[in-house]
Amino acid sequence: MKTLRGLGVSAGVAVGPAHVIFPGHIKVTRTRIPPEEIEEEIRRLRQAMETTARNIRRAQERIPENMGEVRAIFEAQRFLVEDPSLVAEASEIIRQGFNAEWALLKVLRRYQKIFSELPDAYFRERFRDLEGLVEMIIGALRGEKPLGGPERAIIVARDLSPADTINLRPENTLAFVTEAGSRTSHTAIVARSLGIPAVVAAKGALEEISPGDLLAVDGTTGEIFVDPDPETIREFEQRERRFRKLQSRLHQVADLPAVTRDGRRVVLRANLDLPEEIPYAREYGAEGVGLFRTEYLYVAREDLPPEELLFETYRQVVEAVAPHPVTIRTLDLGGDKFASVLNLPREINPALGLRAIRLCLREEALFRTQLRAILRASAYGKVKIMFPMISGVTEFLRARNLVEEIKQELAQEGHPFDPEIPVGAMIEVPSAVAMADLLAKEADFFSIGTNDLIQYTLAIDRGNQEVSELYEPLHPAVLRFIWTTVEAAHRAGIPVAMCGEMAGELLYIPVLVGLDLDELSMPPQSIPEVKLFIRELSYRQCRQVVEKLLRLTCQDEVREALAEVFGPQLQRFSKSLWFE
Ligand code: PEP
Ligand code: MG
């Protein structure tokens, strides 16, 4: 048994076989094939390709109607596997006396070179489809079961792109293990939202884990056991039972309000990356959706989503969440959220580049389509619009004016919409904090995106594990920025929410309650726990502590001060969740 350690970013445990995704270095050995066996080797290749084509067709049939982007990925792979040139090129290499696996890899390398030289980012990115396909064929040659089949597996990869994560079907994914990533990387966020245990930043995972190895993964502690012994498996069964017990206890509180002992009410809402997560939001007692990320409709598709598709999707979400509100965040592409369809230029510093609201204001037609769809959906429930990456007042007003223009357009066309739709700004760029007092006069609400606010405030790349230890939500600079934002909002009489990952962490809850946030939005699974904890807190005490924290010099002092006041209570609380 081998033990690996990473960062547990999505709670839960899983025991199951590994499905390893090798990025660009699929491991195969080169074997010489004697001339008399060459035809047989080609037949073996053809058979494996037929099996793969069949598996892709079956997987395609099982994809729900509303997941058109995923269907598109499978469609592309099916096209490639049925294309005669792949088998022809591989057969040619087999005829030179090599095994089928090696031949496929050689063909793949040839294409890698061609793809990497393509000027269009979208087509360069399509190499991933081919790579995934070759992996499937090699799997079939080895007699492995495909991931898309009924078999359930733990996904082991270097990293997963947003498209990969959507592509992997949640019901077949027991857990994620990735070598790269951090608490706020896309894999972590999606895993938490879907309730799939995940360990990221697991160094050496691809070296130590082979396809099919039995793994035991704990998404809370970050432990990974390769080939676990019977004792470890028994222990994992126990961990699993304990986790289930905890979950069921948490469900029981779904309908209680989040209110401190001395009467301070905090609204708890859910973050959604995909509409499929709505049932979780309801089940865990979210009072609506505080952040609906809309990027998924744009990634992994070859064309821009039409207005009708966007409208239908938003309408479904709004109706499913009613009578609670849904805050729809406009497109936040660029940076770590890559969209091949837009053919974005490669940037040296994408986090500081053409992303989010900047991109939308540049590509106005694209933005208008999305705004029209959101406004039209607002006729079916309570909708709020939120702009990401706002850096100042002018930028916010430009976006807001566009909403006004579109309202007039829709009114003329006879489309119903909510004329009072609230329009808010995400506060995730330091310059927006500096301008918060003036911005608060123009916006109907604020929502603090700490994932980015911490990144830009501390100059720490949120996805870079080399500096992940420096990514510190409790840095006094971050706390001061949050406080400045809240004060400005409240002075202007507008509410302020937080929708970054910080809002769903127990340790930070007393701080956020003391910082006077009106609303916290988080992965649905975190809601019950946060709610129970808030019900044990005293707002007065949280305020007093925060006043002290805002005067401290460094994060270590903040952590110490917090541990001193809330440490024992937090420990008691966590224990009570596990054992009562
Ligand atoms: C954030 O930055 O905190 C946020 C909520 O948005 P995202 O993680 O999608 O950038
Ligand atoms: Mg952000």
From TrEMBL:
<feature type="binding site">
    <location>
        <position position="428"/>
    </location>
    <ligand>
        <name>Mg(2+)</name>
    </ligand>
</feature>
<dbReference type="InterPro" id="IPR050499">
    <property type="entry name" value="PEP-utilizing_PTS_enzyme"/>
</dbReference>
<dbReference type="GO" id="GO:0008965">
    <property type="term" value="F:phosphoenolpyruvate-protein phosphotransferase activity"/>
</dbReference>
<keyword id="KW-0598">Phosphotransferase system</keyword>
<dbReference type="Pfam" id="PF02896">
    <property type="entry name" value="PEP-utilizers_C"/>
</dbReference>
<comment type="similarity">
    <text>Belongs to the PEP-utilizing enzyme family.</text>
</comment>
<keyword id="KW-0813">Transport</keyword>
<keyword id="KW-0963">Cytoplasm</keyword>
<feature type="binding site">
    <location>
        <position position="329"/>
    </location>
    <ligand>
        <name>phosphoenolpyruvate</name>
    </ligand>
</feature>
<dbReference type="Pfam" id="PF05524">
    <property type="entry name" value="PEP-utilisers_N"/>
</dbReference>
<keyword id="KW-0479">Metal-binding</keyword>
<dbReference type="GO" id="GO:0005737">
    <property type="term" value="C:cytoplasm"/>
</dbReference>
<dbReference type="InterPro" id="IPR023151">
    <property type="entry name" value="PEP_util_CS"/>
</dbReference>
<dbReference type="InterPro" id="IPR015813">
    <property type="entry name" value="Pyrv/PenolPyrv_kinase-like_dom"/>
</dbReference>
<dbReference type="InterPro" id="IPR008279">
    <property type="entry name" value="PEP-util_enz_mobile_dom"/>
</dbReference>
<feature type="binding site">
    <location>
        <position position="452"/>
    </location>
    <ligand>
        <name>Mg(2+)</name>
    </ligand>
</feature>
<dbReference type="GO" id="GO:0016301">
    <property type="term" value="F:kinase activity"/>
</dbReference>
<feature type="domain" description="PEP-utilising enzyme C-terminal">
    <location>
        <begin position="249"/>
        <end position="537"/>
    </location>
</feature>
<dbReference type="InterPro" id="IPR036618">
    <property type="entry name" value="PtsI_HPr-bd_sf"/>
</dbReference>
<keyword id="KW-0418">Kinase</keyword>
<keyword id="KW-0808">Transferase</keyword>
<feature type="active site" description="Tele-phosphohistidine intermediate">
    <location>
        <position position="186"/>
    </location>
</feature>
<feature type="active site" description="Proton donor">
    <location>
        <position position="499"/>
    </location>
</feature>
<feature type="binding site">
    <location>
        <position position="462"/>
    </location>
    <ligand>
        <name>phosphoenolpyruvate</name>
    </ligand>
</feature>
<dbReference type="InterPro" id="IPR036637">
    <property type="entry name" value="Phosphohistidine_dom_sf"/>
</dbReference>
<dbReference type="GO" id="GO:0046872">
    <property type="term" value="F:metal ion binding"/>
</dbReference>
<dbReference type="Pfam" id="PF00391">
    <property type="entry name" value="PEP-utilizers"/>
</dbReference>
<dbReference type="InterPro" id="IPR000121">
    <property type="entry name" value="PEP_util_C"/>
</dbReference>
<dbReference type="GO" id="GO:0009401">
    <property type="term" value="P:phosphoenolpyruvate-dependent sugar phosphotransferase system"/>
</dbReference>
<protein>
    <recommendedName>
        <fullName>Phosphoenolpyruvate-protein phosphotransferase</fullName>
        <ecNumber>2.7.3.9</ecNumber>
    </recommendedName>
</protein>
<dbReference type="InterPro" id="IPR008731">
    <property type="entry name" value="PTS_EIN"/>
</dbReference>
<comment type="function">
    <text>General (non sugar-specific) component of the phosphoenolpyruvate-dependent sugar phosphotransferase system (sugar PTS). This major carbohydrate active-transport system catalyzes the phosphorylation of incoming sugar substrates concomitantly with their translocation across the cell membrane. Enzyme I transfers the phosphoryl group from phosphoenolpyruvate (PEP) to the phosphoryl carrier protein (HPr).</text>
</comment>
<feature type="domain" description="PEP-utilising enzyme mobile">
    <location>
        <begin position="150"/>
        <end position="222"/>
    </location>
</feature>
<dbReference type="InterPro" id="IPR006318">
    <property type="entry name" value="PTS_EI-like"/>
</dbReference>
<feature type="domain" description="Phosphotransferase system enzyme I N-terminal">
    <location>
        <begin position="5"/>
        <end position="126"/>
    </location>
</feature>
<dbReference type="InterPro" id="IPR024692">
    <property type="entry name" value="PTS_EI"/>
</dbReference>
<keyword id="KW-0762">Sugar transport</keyword>
<keyword id="KW-0460">Magnesium</keyword>
<dbReference type="InterPro" id="IPR040442">
    <property type="entry name" value="Pyrv_kinase-like_dom_sf"/>
</dbReference>
<feature type="binding site">
    <location>
        <position position="293"/>
    </location>
    <ligand>
        <name>phosphoenolpyruvate</name>
    </ligand>
</feature>
<feature type="binding site">
    <location>
        <begin position="451"/>
        <end position="452"/>
    </location>
    <ligand>
        <name>phosphoenolpyruvate</name>
    </ligand>
</feature>
